[in-house]
Amino acid sequence: MDGKMGDESEEILSFQCPLCGDITPHRVIKRQESKRHIKLKVKCLDCGYIWEMERTIKLKDVKVIISRYGKSEKKVIQMPIEEVLKVGDVINIEGEDLEITSIEGKRRIHSLKVGDIGTIWTKSLSIPKKVGISINDGRKTYSVNVLVPQDYVFDSRYIYRVGEGFFKIKMIKTEKGTSKREIARNIKRIYAQPTKPFKNYVDLTEYLL
């Protein structure tokens, strides 16, 4: 459950939206509290869905590590202790979509209740993805980096151009293994070989770092 954002008169909390299916920021429209229960009417700020909940809620401060281009930022947010998070979930903090890459309690685990979580490790999905490409000509390996949208698709069937050079993908290393076709956010590195210029190609020059 996130803290307040924006106008100080507004209460913004993070819940799993029934319509979105992701943990997103919600604005509290109406709040009714008793000694044991809290009843909230909330609006999802991503999709606009308005819904009500009634439950006993205890909050916990959770440390979140956000990775962006190899650099990390630490934030502390409040979340319901009964909420279950798992690796691969997307949470939203201050308008930034973050994919959970690791969860640490007493040990690192795939899923865990917030009450048992010490640290959540995440990577930002709201910034372009930096993809490293290693191009080997049989004698030397040249490395280039491109900054592409998170959902950009790389495919070994295509010829790519970077600057004056052309290459063909040999293998894509992903978070789960290797592939011949993958979206950028799942890619760890691309391995390629140079090829002769071809009239039909995908130009990556504008994304070159």
Automatic annotation (TrEMBL):
A Pfam match is CPxCG_zf
- Please give the name of this protein: Uncharacterized protein
Q: Which organism is it from?
A: Methanofervidicoccus abyssi
Specify the taxonomic lineage: Archaea, Methanobacteriati, Methanobacteriota, Methanomada group, Methanococci
